[in-house]
Amino acid sequence: MRKIILAGGTGHLGTALKKKFLQLGWNIVILSRQQPKKEDGVTYVFWDGEHLDAWVNVLESADTVINLSGESIRCRFTSKNRVILENSRLLPTSALGRAIVTCGKRPRLWINFSGISIFSGLKELQDESSIAIGEGYLAQLTKRWEATFSAFDLPDTLKVILRVSPVLSKQHGMLAELLPLAKWGLGGKVSNGCQCVSWIHERDLVRLVWWIIEQTQPRRIYHACSPYPVTNATFMKALRDSLGTSFGLPIPRVLAHIGSFLKAVDSSILLQPVPGTTKFTLEDGFDFKFGKIKCALSDLINNKNNIVNQ
Q1: Residue 40's domain spans which residues?
Q2: Would you call 257 helix, strand, or coil by DSSP?
Q3: Number of domains present in the structure of the chain
Q4: Is residue 206 part of a domain?
Q5: Cα 139 from Cα 137, distance rounded (Å)
């Protein structure tokens, strides 16, 4: 039975991946700071995401390790929050690397989640071959995150950076926050609406992770985003169309700043473009089931039988 380790795997994405691998009959181990619990087919192991301890033993003979650790970026980038964001990404990545080094039989594959926000603020579309780094705090944080991962030389373990864009889900994240606003007639473009929005349907993300695991020689970097990013204005119109809402009040730039302050998030999340797309996934044969924004939103909003791990 193949074993998979989900580090920081108790959140939305970890839960979606857990369901997938339960279906596949894998031995699932979740590393979590939460109190271990009992669940059929899943072993929960406590770790602090920093120090090597008894949890290191579960990495032995694992097929795949996936690091999903990282606090949400939906906050103000205060000094205190920056420490939290950095520690929640850099320390677990370093801990996993140091732990894998100690293994007698090292994992076959280590996938480290990263962020498409490494391109925040850039104007031109960027794919996996791009070397450009965006502007601002999130881009620099992501650069450091990936550098921490890349610092480990593990000849017996394949290593993949998966840069994840905002994941569209009806219950979680960006879409879940926008749905009620759009229903209330507040689903208009933000500022001039020209900022690029990269995104991926939650089911395509799960399928992509599984696809990477099944590759015998995966590339060093893949982008978990649709090959068809859209502008903010296009995204909001597609959302209104999916809801059958004809009107969406635009949000001027100054109101976006005020709204961000009231919601305790950094305004750059709303106003900065994140021009990420993907080339390597398409070249290597991955098939996006929900590559176009209208198709993705229609499925998530109107399909009552939507199941994340299909």
Answers
A1: 3-302
A2: helix
A3: 1
A4: yes
A5: 6
